[in-house]
Specification:
By secondary structure, the protein is an all-alpha fold. Helices cover about 60% and strands about 5% of the residues. It is built from 13 helices and 4 strands. Strands 1-4 form a two-stranded antiparallel ribbon. A two-stranded antiparallel sheet has the order 2-3. The protein is globular.
C-alpha cells in the first residue's frame, strides 16, 4: 500500500461512495442481531431491501472509478504496466480477507478458510473490468454486458444441476452452489451454510456486468462534448429505464442479491445511476457542497474504511465495563431493543468516522 496526497477527484463520487460505506457499517454492526429494523436486514432470498443495495452500489462505483483513474493514462501508458498494477491490487484485495480470518479465527487454519467473499469479488470485478476498459471499445463492452446478463440467465434457469436433475434458483441446489462446492469444497464456503456462498464463483459473471454498468456511466460523465445538464438528464433516463427493465425481468428471473441475478444487476445499477446523477447535479454542477464533508471522509479512503470496519467493531466488542459489554452498558438499558441496536450501530459509524477523519485531516489516502 502507498500513502498518497489527495488528487483532483469527482466529489460526487466520493460522497456517494462515502454514503455507501456508512450504510455498510450501519447494517454490518447492529448492537443485537436479534433486533433489527427490517430495512437494515438483507432480504431472506428474493427481493431487495436498502441493505441489499450496498454491495452493488460499491461495485458500480468501482467501474466509475476505473474510468476516472485510467482514462487519461490509457492513451500514453503501456497497457501491460497498467494491467500488472491492477493485478497487484487484485492480489492484495484477495489476501486481506484471508489474513483477517487468520487473525480473528486462528483455530480454523487453512481447513476452514472461506475463499469467496466481498473483497475477493471486488478484486475480481476490478481486475476484469480494468482489462475490458483498456482493451475493448464501449460498444464491445455493451455487448459483453448484455451477453453476461443473458448468458447468466440461461445458465441459471436452463442447465440441469448435477445430483438434482433440474435447473432451479434455490439456495443450496442451484448450479452456482454446485460449482462452489465442486471448486472450493464446503469447508471453504460461507460458514453460515457450507452448502452455498452469497459471493460464489458463478456470480462473478453478473457482478462484472455491474462493474461495466459503472464504466458506461463513468465514461458518459467524462465526456467533454456534452453539457453537464445533458449528462444528468441522460443518467436519470438510463437509470429509470434500467430499474424498469430489472422489475420486468424480476417477473421470471427474480431480483436476488445472493444469486446476483441479471434483474438485480439492472435494478440496482439503475438505482445507482440515478443516485449518482442526483449527487453529481447537486454537488458538481450546482456546487452545493455544504453537507458533503461527513461522507467525503469515508469516500476518499473507502477500502481502508471497509477493512477497519472489520477490526474496530471486533475490538470494541471486547471492551467490558463491570463485566458488561459496551452495548449492554450504554444502550440496552435506555432504549427499546430495536432502537438500542440501531443506536449502537450509529455509535459504531461515528467511531469509525472519527478514525477516518484522522486520516483525512492529515491528508493520508491509502491506495492499494
Amino acid at each position: 500500500m502507498a500513502l498518497q496526497t489527495q488528487s483532483p477527484r469527482l466529489l460526487s463520487l466520493d460522497v456517494f461512495r462515502g454514503a455507501t460505506i456508512a450504510m455498510m457499517i450501519l447494517v454490518n454492526d447492529p448492537g443485537d442481531w436479534g433486533h433489527i429494523y427490517p430495512p437494515l436486514e438483507h432480504s431472506k432470498w428474493n427481493g431487495c431491501t436498502p441493505t441489499d443495495l450496498v454491495f452493488p452500489f460499491f461495485l458500480f462505483m468501482v467501474g466509475v472509478a476505473v474510468v476516472y483513474a485510467m482514462e487519461s493514462k490509457k492513451a500514453t501508458m503501456p497497457h501491460g504496466k497498467m494491467i500488472l498494477t491492477a493485478l497487484r491490487r487484485t492480489v492484495i484485495l484477495l489476501l486481506i480477507p484471508w489474513i483477517t480470518q487468520f487473525i480473528f479465527h486462528p483455530e480454523n487454519g487453512l481447513a476452514h478458510l472461506r475463499l469467496p467473499g466481498v473483497l475477493p469479488r471486488i478484486a475480481l470485478v476490478y481486475f476484469i473490468c480494468t482489462i475490458l476498459y483498456l482493451k475493448t471499445s464501449q460498444k464491445s463492452r455493451d455487448w459483453i454486458f448484455a451477453s453476461a446478463l443473458i448468458g447468466y440467465f440461461i445458465i441459471m434457469t436452463c442447465i440441469p444441476v448435477p445430483g438434482v436433475g433440474y435447473a432451479n434458483l434455490e439456495p443450496a441446489t442451484n448450479i452456482g452452489a454446485w460449482i462452489d462446492r465442486l471448486v472450493f469444497t464446503p469447508n471453504h464456503l460461507w460458514k453460515e451454510s457450507n452448502t452455498w456462498d452469497p459471493e460464489g464463483l458463478l456470480g462473478t459473471i453478473p457482478a462484472v456486468a455491474t462493474g461495466l454498468f459503472g464504466i458506461r456511466v463513468g465514461s458518459w460523465l467524462k465526456r467533454k462534448d456534452r453539457d453537464e445538464n445533458v449528462k444528468v438528464s441522460w443518467m436519470f433516463t438510463y437509470g429509470v429505464l434500467a430499474v424498469i427493465a430489472g422489475l420486468i425481468w424480476d417477473l421470471f428471473f427474480p431480483i436476488n442479491k445472493a444469486l446476483w441475478t441479471s434483474s438485480f444487476v439492472l435494478f440496482t445499477g439503475g438505482l445507482a445511476t440515478t443516485g449518482l446523477a442526483l449527487c453529481y447535479w447537486l454537488i458538481d454542477v450546482q456546487g452545493r457542497k455544504k453537507y458533503t464533508y461527513f461522507f467525503v471522509v469515508f469516500g476518499t479512503n473507502a477500502i481502508t474504511a471497509y477493512v477497519l470496519s472489520g477490526f474496530i467493531p471486533h475490538y470494541m466488542g471486547m471492551i467490558k465495563i463491570h463485566g458488561a459489554s459496551l452495548y449492554q452498558t450504554l444502550f440496552a438499558p435506555y432504549f427499546s431493543p430495536v432502537n438500542a441496536s440501531l443506536v449502537s450501530a450509529l455509535f459504531t459509524v461515528a467511531v469509525l468516522w472519527v478514525v477516518m477523519w484522522g486520516f483525512y485531516a492529515k491528508k493520508i489516502f491509502i491506495k492499494i
